[in-house]
Amino acid sequence: MYRMKTQFSLTTLLLALVLLPSCARKNYKASFFEEQTRDHKIIAILPPEMIFTGTHPKELTAEDIKRIEEDESSLFQTSLFNGILRHANTSRYYTEVAVQDISTTLGLLEKNNISIRGSWREDDRKLADILGVDAVVRMRVQKKRYMSDLASLGIDLGQQVLSQLGNGNFPYISNKTNDIYASCNVVSNGQTLWNDHYKRSTSYNAPAEDVIYDITENFGKRFPYRKKR
After folding, report:
1. Sequential DSSP letters for 136-166
2. How far apart are CA 127 and CA 134, in angstroms?
3. Could you read off the pLDDT of 104-152 as tens digits, one per residue?
4. Which helix (H) or strand (E) holds 94?
5. Are 137 and 44 contacting, i.e. CB atoms less than 8 angstroms apart?
6. Is residue 77's pLDDT more than 80?
């Protein structure tokens, strides 16, 4: 009986330790959010700002990196749009605002000579006026690169070989390729009304599409403007 109680206690403790980080994660919502957004009818998702740091591939030029940043910005923008809409109206919740179609957002930015990269620095009030929306959604993604997928695979295979040989006296070497820190903000009239953040590490066997989906899915689940039915 004592042994069973001890095992139960240990299991409960381990479960609590596993759940603690996820329970501790909180987003920010302004105390005046409801008052500030009472008359909001439509919002727009801006092209996310991308920042690449760490070890860049030697064969890439500065222009290559800029192009990759803008390509990934488009991927994150589309994925965030889909993530928000996926959770907008469910059996439990409904969303009080409409989300401007991405093609409309990009078209209006281009019409006003604002590039994807240029939108990262423009004032939110100016962009909201151009886009005809009440608030804009800004996302910022910082990727710190450590190694290539090939190097990540090599480390993983090497550790597997050593483990099979029964040599347990070797240091653990991380095979992650990137650390990704993403933040998402709802901004209106120069004020951040809501903020959330998410961190994820990647390796050779974590496809970029899956990582982007995981990050934006988290934001979509926790996005404001939703009311219980």
Report:
1. EEEEEEEEEE---HHHHHHHHHHHHHHHHTT
2. 10
3. 999 999 999 999 999 999 999 999 999 999 999 999 999 887 644 444 3
4. strand 93-95
5. yes
6. yes
Q: First CA to last CA across the chain, in angstroms? A: 47
What is the reported pTM? 0.77
pLDDT in tens, 178-229: 788 999 999 999 999 999 999 877 765 667 788 899 999 999 999 999 988 8
> Hey, what amino acid is at 134?
D
Read off the amino acid at residue 194: W
Which carries the bigger pLDDT value, residue 78 or residue 9?
Answer: 78
Torsions phi, psi of 48, nearest 5? -60, 145
Query: How much is the pLDDT for 163?
Result: 53
Q: What are the φ/ψ torsions at residue 31 (nearest 5 degrees)?
A: -65, -25
Instruction: Say if residues 169 and 159 touch (Cβ distance below 8 Å).
Output: no
3-state secondary structure of 208: helix
- 3-state per-residue secondary structure call for 29-79: ECCCHHHHCCCCCEEEECCCEEEEEECCCCCCCHHHHHHHHHHHHHHHHHH
Compute, in degrees rounded to 10, the torsion defined by CA atoms 15, 18, 20, 21.
Answer: -170
pLDDT of residue 168: 55
Report yes or no: 198 and 139 within 8 Å, Cβ to Cβ.
no
Measured over the CA atoms of residue 137, residue 177, residue 209 and residue 107, the dihedral's sign is positive
AA letter at 155: I
